[in-house]
Structure formats: structure tokens, C-alpha cells
Amino acid sequence: MRLMARALFALTFGIFVLAQPAMANERYGTQKVVYHINEDGGEDSKGYMGAMRNIQNHINAVGAGNLEVVVVMRGNGVGLVMNAKKDDRLQTAIGSLKSQNVAFHVCNNTLEGRNINYGDDLYDVWEEDIVPSGVAELSRLQAMGYTYIKP
Facing residues of 37 across strands? Predict the structure, then answer.
């Protein structure tokens, strides 16, 4: 009898777990979103960590397969990948989001204006991650149907 109860629980729990993404997808559908980061992360990069949690929560709600996310960093927001050079928590958060197909774009105007070398000064940023202008990239993505979010 106990074995049958465990099997029934496992089956019920399994159906509940499998139904969660379907219910979220029914509610939210597919989405394209651009997160705009342009402020300083504050003490201990608290603001940056909060933004990374917002993005992960968004993925959890909609499902990674139903969501296209681009993070655009400009101005002080470039501090996210600059601070990550020495912050394991930020490295982990960025790596986790990238493994879920989140793209991180960095404004070249900011890099040039602040004499930042992406290869030396930024964490896990590659040439293909650099966009000519952060604000122009935000506008381009919104014209392509991406919803703008400012965490």
C-alpha cells in the first residue's frame, strides 16, 4: 500500500511539475525583451545582482524556450561586466543567464568615451557583444518588437 501511495504521489507531483511551464506559456506566450542597464550597481553590486535576479525570474516565469532576452549596458551600466572581473557572484549570474541564451550587449560609445578595453577590463565580453551605440541598440530592438524593461 505504501508503495502505491508513493507511486501515486510521484505521478501527481510529476504531472504538476510538467504542467507548470505549460501554464506559464499559456499565460505569457512567447516574448522578446530588452533589459536596459545604465546605472551604477551600488555597494557590493547590489543593483546589478538585483537586475540579474529579475532576468532569471522572468525566464523562470515564461520558460527559456519562450523568451528572447537581450541585456543592453551603457554608461554606468557597463560596470556590471567590469565589476564581474573580480566578483564571483556576478560571474556566476552572467554565466547562468548566458547558458539560457541571454545576450549581453555593450555600448561602444561608452567604451571609447571611458577608455575601456573590453578584452582587458570586462568579464566575458567579446567583439560580437559590442554594439555601436547603446541607445540606438535599444531603439533598434524595440522596433523589432522587443519589450523594454528597466530593472
Answer: 73
44 exposure class (CB count in 10 Å sphere: 0-12, 13-18, 19+): exposed
CA distance 74 to 105: 9
- DSSP for 82-106 reads HHTTT-HHHHHHHHHHHTTT-EEEE
pTM value is 0.83
pLDDT (0 to 100) of residue 24: 61
As to burial, measured by CB atoms within 10 angstroms (0-12 exposed, 13-18 middle, 19+ buried), residue 72 is buried
**Sign of the C-alpha dihedral, residues 112, 113, 114, 115?**
positive
Strand partners, 8: none
User: What backbone torsions phi and psi does residue 30 show, to the nearest 5 degrees?
Assistant: -95, 145
Residues in the chain, pLDDT under 70:
1-25
Confidence (pLDDT) at 85? 97
